[in-house]
Amino acid sequence: MFKKKYKNNFAYRFTTKFLLLVSSFAAVLAVTEARSEGQIFKHRLSNGLEIVVKPDHRSPVAAVMVWYRAGSIDEVGGTTGIAHLLEHMMFQGTETLAPGEHAKKIAATGGRSNAFTSTDYTGYLQELHSSELELAIQLEADRMHNLLLQDEEFNNELRVVMEERRQRVDDNPRGLLMEQLASAMYVSHPYRNPIVGWMNDLENLTIQDAADWYDRWYVPNNAALVIAGDVETEEVVRLAEKYFGVIKEKQLPVRKPQEEPRRLGNRTVTVKANTTMMSQIRAYAVPKLKDVAKDWEPYALYLLAGVLDGHAAARLHKRLVLEERIAHSVSVSYDGLGRGPGAFYVSYSPVGGGKLSDLDNSWKDEIARLVQDGVSETELSLVKAQVIAGQVFSSDSVLGQANRMGRMWAIGFEPDAPEAINEKLRLITPEEVQKVAAKYLVNAETVTAVLEPKTSK
Amino acid sequence: MLSNIKYHFTSLHWCFRVLTVLTFSYSSLTFGQTREQWVTESGTKVIFVQSVNLPMVDIVVDFSAGAAFDPPGKEGLARLTMRMLDKGTPENDEHAIAARLAATGSQMGGNFDLDRSGVSLRSLSYEETLATSVRLFTEVLSQPNFPQSVVDREKEALITSIRERNTRPASVASRALSEALFGQHPYRSSGAGTETTIQSLTVDDLVYFHERFYRASNASITIVGNLTLKSAESIARQLSENLPVGASERESLEVTTPVSSQQEIVIPHDTEQAHIRIGMVGIQRGDPDHLPLVLGNQILGGGGMTSILYDELREKRGMTYGVGSYFNPLRDPGPFVISFQTKQEQAWEALDITTEILKNFIDNGPNAKQVDQAKRYFIGAFALNVDSNGELLNYYSNINFYDLPLNYIDSFSDRVTAVTVDQIKDAIKRRMSLDKAVSVIVGPTKLLDEPNG
């Protein structure tokens, strides 16, 4: 994503997939076979900061990330968007750095910096020449405890974030649809709120809200330093001790579970927007991955999504788009890696003049067929082939490797969990895929969001 | 797969939600590795770069067959041809092609722009997997048979996309800018076509376009990955000798140098934000002013969180989430574009500020400190641009397609170092001017600073 010339990266694609850091759960099986340097090294400083390092000496570059286990899921009443706003403020100066200077110092070496906020975590990244490792670590440590929140910068970033909201959501039919879907899916769980925040909440955020958020979550015992690239682990630990070691550990607030009550029936929400195409996304409540070694249903659900829509020959695309020609597009995905509840999504839009109800019928029929007749070994092997190749392909970038490890840590798994996950995926049987389809996609309480063209004013 | 909207990124993922602080970033060039360059007997140029650390191979075949080669009235033909490649051959229908590809775990993708139709394959490098994937890749490139009923379906899909795109302010703005900048030059069209032109396309058109433009001598092949020179040669030969034979020259555009002139285009649209573009005709590949101008652009609007435009519009005024500028050097001079969006109420104010910044930049150019920073960035960013096979493929395929010298990459640092402040100022003065700048504002219906606006 970074290598494209000025390309706006706003596309909220189908469901909640995100283009920027498209991580599959790839570990590096084929790679570790060939190279011992692919081992993941872990260490914890006495203040609780987790350190994760994966040496990769192909090129003299390093991806240096700091992850905080704090996302929109941790926001409380009236302050939606504060996790994301604080992420913006992290570039706006510290006790020793002027606003914007962090990014300028990285750019002066030819490096790149960026950051991202999700429902579950907030992450910061530097991609730079490996000889500049110390600079990146120093800057990240500095803003972990010396951030300077100033009114002028705060008010300015608030305006920027409102523009971001207009761009990503208010002017983006797909963005609106996803936002409304999430709100309909969850009555109680904070996944109901958009990461970027509701506009009215943004209008009423204060600098004190930002300060509170920073004090609460930006502490070493809620963070991980994750590095992949041309580095030595001893050097990383030495530099981490030097710069992060001085930061004090702090008691973290209690995180309330806010478990979602059981759905009592189907829910549907309609979104009217400036679009020519009807489309619809439907969410099923399914388990998420909790125990890498013992769970099997999440793996079966993941492969089920693959059987339905994991490649160009997969069932749903083949039937609805290629053969029956009633869908312009279809997408099936499983969201099972997160701090909050899991979900299984199916999304489609009819061809011009077509009806959503026809697509609904074909979808139900397809699920019924799968539950009745099962999945063949060959069919499942096609999906597994994508998984196996995907492992290798996703090791191509050091940033991708660091991102994968950091994300695993942030949602509560070991950074090397992807390897074990891949092993488990390979063992899933056609019967298990059939079982989860029957259990979760039939007679389920679903939540559906429908996108409709706005009638002209 | 080749219907690049969806399958370009085919891979399974657990989905998740993220927002970023920044929306774009700059890219530059790269340095050397073990590599070879040759021309096949059938006349296809090849570059091979060996990279043995991961068990994978990337191949791209670029044809001089981009949007600019659409026959007048048949806009959309080049794109539809590319989209149809994997939709059927004499031996395999679209389902068989998809299933065979899926069995290998390999991915095919398309990269379509004004100059080229680029078709790519990413495969594991294990012998049998690679051989199977390359056979299939060769088949779709050389023998697509464009079944009528599939063509009809894909035309419908394109028309649906066109209708939807017309509702998107960003698309409306880009199209208006291209048409104003390029006049009668083929770069006026993105190659998406219109409902009418797509409707008019026939199987015969597709057969013609494939025969004429997917020729061996009109192609360049770039290979990066874990394979020997011998197998790279064998793959290149196989791909090349199966392509249609024809004239031995490469396709080129008729020379019509586009000249834009100053104008402001206002297009009302039902949105929260106004989408604003300022553009002018820029530079072509191999242009002697290329490096001074892209260094200049780095300072103006190309540098992520460090550019003048970013600083003025976002950091100082909070007017936008993403603002940036770029040169798109093509076979003929391509566009220079500044692009951002801001809430409708402040659209004209933001346009005025931006125009003023641009004017000031053209008149005075950057200062020595800014140039020094931009040069250090370009040189320092060097290593980041070769840190993956995907990026190597991208850079070497550009060198290959645009006939740039192979050492273009190796000499990059030296060439950047040699650029002076005066060269940049001079290039900006000669090549950029408000007199040929076109402004496009999509959104507001009237000047909002009018009373009761």
The domain tally of chain A reads 2
Low-confidence stretches of chain B: 3-17, 21-32
Order of helices and strands of chain B: EEEEHHEEHHHHHEHEEHHEEHHHHHE
Structural class category of chain A: alpha+beta
For CATH, the homologous superfamily of the largest domain in chain B is named as Metalloenzyme, LuxS/M16 peptidase-like
How many helix segments of chain B? 15
CATH architecture of the largest domain in chain A: 2-Layer Sandwich
How would you describe the shape of chain A? globular
CA-atom Rg of chain A in angstroms: 23 Å
Largest interface: which pair?
A-B, 117 and 98 residues
* N-C termini distance of chain A: 38 Å
Main sheet record of chain B? 6 strands, mixed
CA gyration radius of chain B, whole angstroms = 23 Å
Taken as a percent bin, the fraction of beta residues of chain B is 15-25%
Q: Helix fraction of chain A?
A: 40-55%
Structure in words:
The complex is a heterodimer of chains A (457) and B (453). With 457 residues, chain A is α+β, with helices and mostly antiparallel strands. Chain A folds into 2 domains: 35-244, Cytochrome Bc1 Complex, Chain A, domain 1, CATH 3.30.830; 267-453, Cytochrome Bc1 Complex, Chain A, domain 1 (2-Layer Sandwich), CATH 3.30.830. Helices cover 41% and strands 18% of the residues of chain A. Chain A contains 16 helices and 11 strands. Chain A has helices at residues 29-34, 82-89, 101-108, 133-145, 151-170, 173-185, 199-203, 207-217, 233-244, 297-309, 315-323, 356-373, 377-393, 398-410, 417-427, 430-441, and strands spanning 41-44, 50-55, 61-68, 112-118, 122-129, 223-229, 267-273, 279-286, 327-335, 342-350, 446-453. In chain A, the strands form 2 sheets. A 6-stranded mixed β-sheet of chain A has the order 1-2-6-3-5-4, sandwiched between helices. A 5-stranded mixed β-sheet of chain A has the order 7-11-8-10-9, sandwiched between helices. In chain A, helix 4 runs parallel beside helix 9, helix 10 packs across helix 16 (430-441) and helix 12 (356-373) crosses helix 16. The two termini of chain A are 38 Å apart. Chain B has 2 domains: 7-242, Cytochrome Bc1 Complex, Chain A, domain 1; 263-443, 2-Layer Sandwich (Cytochrome Bc1 Complex, Chain A, domain 1). In chain B, strands 2-3-7-4-6-5 form a 6-stranded mixed β-sheet, with helices on both faces. In chain B, strands 8-12-9-11-10 form a 5-stranded mixed β-sheet, with helices on both faces. Chain B has 453 residues and is of the alpha+beta class. In chain B, helix 1 crosses helix 7 (203-213), helix 9 packs across helix 12 (368-381) and helix 9 crosses helix 15. Helix content of chain B is 40%, strand content 17%. Chain B is built from 15 helices and 12 strands. Strand 4 (112-118) of chain A pairs antiparallel with strand 1 (18-20) of chain B, so a sheet runs across the interface.
